[in-house]
Write a structure and sequence with these properties.
The protein is an alpha/beta fold and 722 residues long. The chain folds into four domains: 113 residues; 280 residues, no CATH class; 90 residues, Translation factors (Elongation Factor Tu (Ef-tu), domain 3, Beta Barrel), CATH 2.40.30.10; 216 residues, Nucleotide-binding domain of ferredoxin-NADP reductase (FNR) module (Rossmann fold, 3-Layer(aba) Sandwich). Helix content is 49%, strand content 15%. The protein has 23 helices and 19 strands. Helix 1 crosses helix 5. 39% of the residues are buried.
């Protein structure tokens, strides 16, 4: 057995060396013209070329000669190729002339014998080229492996937390420090979900610190790999000088690494990616990584183009460049792929995605198709094309699986649609029930409006095998659905794709705080219903900030169900204020200020009075969560607070359960979270979903207080929308 392995290794080594020998001879004869064809693989049926090739193989080792000759004979049909290597070599040697004696390489009618120094130079160049290709594939694989390692770490951590750990133990100082300084905070400041703006224009989203470090590590590796471990050969100088070798090797390295990145690039772009479930990362996280991989791909492609330009100009000046690039179709398609990649990066800017998402998505898909087709033609003759095929296959599997899920579960499914205040309740019953976990979302195709467009909605609950969605009336599909259902409920064919998204293990914590803003109540309600079903002694506090009291009708059915949970408390903060207490001009706050000052600072709780200033009537109905996105101000004034209004006869008329308490002011999120953290109970989970400024404020408050309670486990989860 041992000898068999040695034979296999030796055979593989001979094959590699034979390939170098073939490449050296092919390259050495490339500059000569035999009859009507120039010296390359297309001249295998020319007698003079065949015999010149035989003479070149004479410079190789005996084992290389045999392998190379067999490979050449398989595609050659001349008289020389019908003979053995020895016979063909002897005949060619007698009829040959020295290549160094030729003054005109373009009119060759003889058998050419390449000198041994020239062959050696070509051989060393081909060896260096092969080493560079091997290193390039290794480095490209290392970049892919980098993401595999990050995904593995996240998956193992999630598996340990959710499955292997039977109980959530207090965390040590190191883990708390990691959370406070690495996992939870934004890279700079407190903004993460809320976009960074330049003169009111959204230009980017600040990543979390761990996300930024992950991207930085990837970019650093890419730059290092682009410039490391080149195997230039000074012995190849007669064939190609070291600088020209460097240019062609950099071009090859950059192209291989760029193509290999299509695998994680397209995998991270998939809506149906299983990676969301196994890692617990949000779709926004995968989109962030997807964008930076795409930028790195285009950067590498640009380096490839520049290096090719340097290589061609060093070989023959700009005349060589103009004769080569426009003259070969595969080069033209390389330019097309590069231009398409640049256009993809431009139209994927945050501004276009924010205001023209549907248009962005359509153009994005078109440019991606152009890029893939052009890249495929450009690298059709290279082995690296297999990596492009793998990336396309990953994307195709995602698309086909999505189509299969939609058709399998929705072929005859219908939905019931009800208008409720300024929201719409959609109840979809798929033909085949899906497994649903709290906090997940699904895409809905409203066939009556647009069969090609789907919109994501959080799932409020699954009742009688029906998925319940609550969509606030905005623009587009939600406005049209609400308009159709405003007079009376109706039934329509709506296809459901999903559920998608990770579900957080809130049921394992002793205390759970659910923070919701506006329609962000939907995933919070799904978690609250799930925690009720677990029937354990777990304190759950649901805090919902909403503009109008009538919005309670969105979730009235779910609140009635939750009223059976004695450990659940619901606090609804109506930020537009109580209608009986609003004045037209300004808010008189003298009495409230006196009342506030009577409460010792250290004893204030999250439901006690918050300081505020006089505001105009126009500002009364604007909240921190509903301000226009172009407003540059960082803080906003709250409407009138109604400390006494908790449960009234009006609530009874609305059918509000007794465990729902109303407050007519804006809660101070930082104080709310501080009070929950300071509670003496055990582990605490804080989940927030709502407008971006709310979840950013919640995240900042958790970061500030996560290390304030002697190792008590505090975990933060969020689902932001803009």
């Amino acid at each position: 057995m041992k000898h068999r392995y040695l034979v296999l290794v030796a055979s593989g080594l001979v094959t590699v060396l034979a390939s170098l020998c073939e490449d050296a001879c092919t390259k050495g004869l490339e500059s000569y013209t035999f009859g009507k064809c120039k010296g390359n693989a297309l001249c295998v049926d020319d007698e003079n070329y065949s015999e010149s090739y035989v003479l070149c193989l004479g410079h190789c080792l005996n084992t290389e000669q045999v392998k190379s000759w067999q490979a050449f004979v398989s595609k050659c049909h001349t008289k020389a190729c019908s003979s053995s290597f020895g016979v063909a070599y002897s005949h060619a040697l007698n009829a040959s002339i020295e290549a160094d004696t030729l003054t005109d390489k373009t009119a060759t009618a003889s058998v050419i014998q390449i000198s041994h120094p020239m062959f050696t130079a070509q051989y060393e160049y081909q060896r260096a080229k092969a080493n560079n290709i091997r290193n390039s594939q290794f480095f490209g694989g290392a970049l892919v492996l980098y993401w595999v390692i990050l995904i593995t770490i996240a998956s193992v951590s999630r598996l340990k937390t959710q499955i292997l750990d039977k109980e959530l133990r207090p965390q040590g100082r190191l883990m708390i420090a990691v959370k406070k300084h690495l996992l939870l905070p934004a890279l700079f400041g407190y903004r993460h979900a809320d976009a960074i703006r330049f003169h009111g224009i959204p230009i980017a989203v600040m990543p979390l610190r761990w996300q930024a470090l992950s991207v930085l590590g990837f970019l650093t590796l890419n730059v290092v790999f682009l410039s490391a471990q080149f195997s230039m050969s000074s012995s190849a100088a007669p064939a190609m000088d070291v600088r020209t070798q460097t240019a062609t090797f950099v071009a090859k390295r950059a192209s291989i690494m760029a193509i290999m990145l299509t695998m994680p690039l397209l995998q991270f772009a998939g809506r149906n990616s299983i990676l969301v479930t196994v890692t617990g990362w949000s779709n926004d996280t995968f989109k962030l990584f997807h964008r930076w991989i795409a930028r790195t791909m285009v950067f590498n492609a640009t380096v490839h183009s520049i290096a090719v330009t340097v290589y061609l100009t060093r070989l023959g000046g700009w005349e060589k460049y103009h004769a080569t690039v426009p003259g070969l179709s595969f080069n033209i398609f390389g330019v097309v792929a590069l231009v398409a990649g640049g256009l993809i990066l431009f139209q994927a800017l945050h501004y276009f995605q924010t205001y023209w998402y549907e248009t962005f998505l359509t153009i994005h898909i078109i440019f991606v198709i152009v890029f893939v087709i052009a890249a495929r033609i450009h690298i059709a003759s290279y082995s690296v094309i297999c990596y492009l095929y793998i990336g396309i296959a990953l994307w195709a599997v995602d698309r086909l699986w999505r189509v299969a899920r939609v058709l399998y579960g929705n072929f005859s499914g219908r939905a019931e649609i009800h208008a409720n205040a300024d929201a719409t309740q959609i109840m979809v019953k798929p033909l085949v029930p899906f497994t649903y976990r709290p906090g997940q979302y699904a895409y809905l195709y409203v066939l009556r409006l647009n069969i090609w467009q789907s919109n994501p909605f959080s799932i409020a609950e699954c009742r009688d095998n029906k998925f319940v969605f609550i969509a606030k009336r905005r623009k587009g599909v939600t406005a049209r659905l609400h308009g159709l259902a405003i007079d009376s409920a109706f039934s329509a064919r709506i296809w459901l794709e999903g559920p998608y998204g990770a579900s957080f293990p809130l049921g394992r914590y002793q205390t759970v705080m659910l923070l919701a803003g506006g329609i962000g109540i939907t995933p919070c309600i799904s978690y609250a219903l799930y925690l009720k079903q677990k029937r354990r002694d777990q304190r759950v506090t649901l805090i919902w900030t909403v503009r109008d009291k009538e919005s309670i009708n969105w979730i009235m059915t779910q609140l009635l169900t939750l009223s059976e949970n004695p450990y659940l408390t619901v606090h609804v903060f109506v930020t537009a204020g109580h209608p009986d207490k609003l004045e037209d001009d300004k808010i008189e706050i003298d009495y409230l200020e006196d009342k506030f000052e009577s409460v010792p600072d250290k004893r204030r709780t999250m439901f006690e009075m918050m300081p505020f200033e006089t505001v105009s009537a126009a500002d009364k109905r604007r909240t921190i969560f509903e301000m226009d996105l172009n407003d540059d101000s960082e803080s906003f004034n709250a409407p009138v607070e109604d400390q006494e209004s908790v449960y009234t006869s009006d609530d009874e008329q609305l059918g509000v359960p007794s465990n729902v308490q109303f407050h007519y002011y804006k809660p101070k999120i930082a104080s709310v979270i501080r009070d929950m953290v300071n509670d003496d109970r055990g582990s605490l989970a804080i989940f927030s979903c709502g407008p971006v400024r709310m979840v950013d404020e919640a995240r900042a408050a958790v970061v500030k207080n996560v290390d304030d309670n002697c190792g008590k486990r505090i975990d933060y989860f969020e689902d932001a929308f803009s």
